[in-house]
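REVIEWER CHECKLIST
Item 1: Sequence provided? yes
Item 2: Single chain? yes
Item 3: Sequence as submitted:
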Amino acid sequence: MNDLMNQLLDQFEAGLMDRTLKVMNVITDEKKRYPMELNKSQCSEMLLGTRDTGTFDDRFNSHQDFPRIKGKREKYPRDAVIQWYHNNWQRTAN
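Item 4: Structure as written out by the authors:
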């Protein structure tokens, strides 16, 4: 009986670990967590971990080549922002 219980507990634990890893993957993958078009707060949260748009403006949005979607509202293409950051992170330090 103990062996059967231990097997069931091991299977339960393995299933829990698998589910935890799947959830963590979704949480940490910005392409699954954020929409294709970001507003300024989302862009700031993705790049800085905070919705502080003042810091976002100073470090990122102030660059003329930072990716934007032209229109009435400020929007940013998620994948282009990620690529821009990977190519320009050295320029963003304050």
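Item 5: Key structural point noted by reviewer: The first helix runs from residue 2 to 28.
Item 6: Recommendation: ____
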